[in-house]
Amino acid sequence: MSTLNLLAAISLAYVALLFSVAFFAERAAMRGRARWFRAPLVYTLSLSIYCTAWTFYGAVGSAARNGFEYLTIYLGPSLVMLGWWWILRKLVRIGRNQRITSIADLISSRYGKSNLLGIGVTILAVVGSTPYIALQLQSVTLSVEVFAPAQFVDEGGPRFTAFWVAAGLAVFTVIFGTRNLDANERHHGVVMAIAVEAVVKLTALIALGIFVVWGLSDGVSATLARIDASPLGTWSVDNGRWAGVMLLSAAAFLCLPRMFQVLVVENDNDAQLRMAAWAFPLYLMGMSLFVVPIAVTGLELLPPGSNPDLFVLTLPLSQGKEGLAMLSFLGGFSSATSMVIVAAIALSTMVSNHIVMPVWLRLRVGSASVSGDVRHVVLLSRRISIAGVLLLGYLYYSLSGGRTELAAIGLVSFTGVAQVLPALLGGIFWRGATRVGALAGLTAGFVIWLYTLYLPSFGPGTVLPDAWFITGPLNIAALRPEALFGVGFGDKLLHAVFWSLLLNTLIFVAGSLMSEASPLERLQGAHFVSAQQAGSGPRSWLQSTAESEDLMVMTQRILGAQEAQALFLREARAQGVEGDLPASTPEFLQRLERELGGSVGAATAHAMVSQIVGGAMVSVEDLMAVADETAQMMEYSARLEAQSQELTRTAGELRRANEKLTRLSVQKDAFLSQISHELRTPMSSIRAFSEILRDAQGLTRSEQNRYASIIHDEALRLTRLLDDLLDLSVLENGQVSLNVTEGRLEDVLDRAVSAALADEAGSGIRVLRRRVNEQVALLTDVERLAQVFINLIANARKYCDADDPVLRIVVTEARSDLLVDFIDNGSGVAPEAQDVIFEKFARVSDQKAGGAGLGLAISRQIVARLGGEISYLPDCDGAAFRVSLPLRQVLAAQ
Amino acid sequence: MSGAGGDLPKRRAGKPSAGATQVHVERQTVRRRRLIDATCALPLLGWILWWLPLLWNGIAEPVPSSQALIYIFGVWIALAIGAGRLVHLLNRSRPVGSGA
């Protein structure tokens, strides 16, 4: 038991070392010294999880059994890495741009964030990986058995070992794999620990190889001679398997969830990939270099019948090199643990994001922002998923009872995950690939794989009835699991690979051609296929009614309070918004969704933002609605613009009205003083002369007469003034009754001219008329019309300041109006006075203050009553007034 | 080679530059394009070389394992060195500001 105790102690010490490496790497990364962990070398070494215990132990076993076929497992991935420019460069960029968290997430994202596809790939990955994890547990227990006495095995020790290895790995993975949620912060601790393990396993194999070549043999040439002399002496590899397994391993290298995790998800920059492109093939070469020498030496030195899968341990032990055996054990242990850890992380991410979270969200519809702590739920679901994945692996191990051939299980698993390849490559190179095609192809591939390889791998009669293998189900020979359509290939694996991938691809292509992609799919397809032009984001949120606060609350729960606040603050700064809540613009929602996608997967993030934003998946109807909304917004903004123009116009009018009112008020004040003066002057003379008449003695008769007539004249003047005011007030109140009679325009003008120029004959303004045009019959209030004309002519006489004043009276007929223009040759009315001359009390100037300023106001009222209009013509040489009367009155008269 | 064109630096049209620089830039572009072509061709070469053993089964005289091992591992090392060399040259010829 002492060896076993030593083994346990060394294993524990090694695990402690890994814990501390992971712990310090995490600490350093948290302090921002992550630069070193992003080194291309660390990335390259982390890819070594491809070399699991299967390859560590199984490669030698495979070489001992089948010769050189084991090489294909390494050659395929080497070709993929060498061809990095073709596929990996694109995958890695898509992974970074779209914040892809797993291969299921990639497929789901590409095909319109379809969660159904995500679930499908997840199930496929879990089913395919479980035996693989069981294989790792088995290899560890097998390697322990080598060191242990027989009674350990009898006491159920292997199961005990397997259980505690699984439990320990679960703890490690939970601690370092679910520490943070944002995929942007990658699993530095885990990656660092894996890099260390990569070095350990390479060192172990190379040390053993050196011991075999130079310790047990005499150098290279002697070893080569030994190989040629051994049962593996000549090249004898089945052509079909050489080609088929190489392609299969290349496909699996891209599609294995754990490989996708380290290749794409943990990738930080292109430089990492560029180094891995040449360095990882070298690593694989190093891992496989000494496999054949070890196998040949083992076959030669060890007793026949010993398990070739364990040559790496039994060979040094048989030579008494316990230390080397320990190192080999650690190498195998490293291979197993690193694979299990990364596979558990990758699978738990997929299970949690595509199965647990959607179910959880579905159960709490519409409450992503108000329900419990999502961050907590995500972490919990991941931890439970990790434990679940490892438990499945352990159960598979205990139930299968530990089968002998390691390589067989590995290749079964490879074939399963390779079913994702058509959808993956189609997704990144073919824009026409659709969700329906991918789903159909995957399902077909999965079912064929299950039927032809996975279920038969349990052995005939275990799951599938024995008879099926001989006569086919229901005696249909074409459906025999190992010879579909009667074609057997002579090899179960090749048969399954051929039919599953062929039908998968055919159905995928046919399904894509026959179905139509949704708009979201087409958008994502364009993003993925043209990922070389980096920077283009995923589809946008056009319908943004999201409340920033709700988004904030939700983001806090997923990313944690500090990160969320920092993110929102950054966004707010970028938007130039005051405070720390950015507006929920489409760009922001898109970025937020991508950020959340890093934690919970694209589909879940989309669903969560959808719940808050209010729209589910973007359908054609949504796009229509968005288009409608855009049109509505445009219309609305056009209306707003029109309204604002109208408001501007109204404001201008109001301003002008206000100015006019102010001027009017000033004029009114002026008029009041004027009218007081006008009233006061005749009053004064009336009072003065009446006092004279009353008080003075000895006035002559003629004097009395003169004074009395002055009083009389002044009283008349007062009366006239008051009449005018009364007249205006009556007109304005609309109480006037028109006395409509027939008349001729010429007569009216004659009367007006003579009346206006009568009182001060000779003080002359010449009046020019064309009587031909004045032969118009009128049916109107002729007296009132004459009053207007008199006023206009009198005004011209009074105010025309030309040396030789001339007044032209022009009569024209325009459309439905009769126009009578009064144009003098004076300087006209000043522009600022033009709009107030028709107001009451308006006077152009004080210098010729002849009237009370009521003439034009009265004229305007009269013309208005007659159904016409009087206006000032601003662009004539002198003052020009136009009286327009509706012609129908005229016609009525004719 | 559909991916090859996407990364090439686009010549800035309309910007006056000395003829010598122009020629230099173009030569660099052509050189880079050739490097990318070589990078794309390398895995195809590896694929062909590693599938050559398929022919060995038809040969009357069996191929000794030592020769097979030397051939396969020789190709492996040569491909890795070739890829490393190409990556190195690509890194050096990376146009400024392309971010590739």
From TrEMBL, chain A:
Where in the cell does this protein reside? Membrane
SMART domains per the UniProt record, alphabetical: HATPase_c, HisKA
**Which SUPFAM superfamilies does the record cross-reference, listed alphabetically?**
ATPase domain of HSP90 chaperone/DNA topoisomerase II/histidine kinase, Homodimeric domain of signal transducing histidine kinase
Query: Which parts of the sequence belong to the Histidine kinase domain?
Result: 674-889
**A molecular function (GO) term:** transmembrane transporter activity
Topology with respect to the bilayer: Multi-pass membrane protein
Primary location recorded for the protein, binned into one broad class: membrane
GO CC annotations, alphabetized: membrane
List the catalytic activities from the record: ATP + protein L-histidine = ADP + protein N-phospho-L-histidine
Keyword annotations for this protein?
Answer: Coiled coil, Kinase, Membrane, Phosphoprotein, Transferase, Transmembrane, Transmembrane helix, Two-component regulatory system
Q: What is this protein called?
A: histidine kinase
Q: Which organism is it from?
A: Antarctobacter heliothermus
Automatic annotation (TrEMBL), chain B:
Listed A to Z, the keywords are: Membrane, Transmembrane, Transmembrane helix
Tell me the segments the record calls region Disordered. 1-25
Enumerate the transmembrane spans.
Answer: 35-56, 68-87
Question: Mind telling me what this protein is named?
Answer: Uncharacterized protein
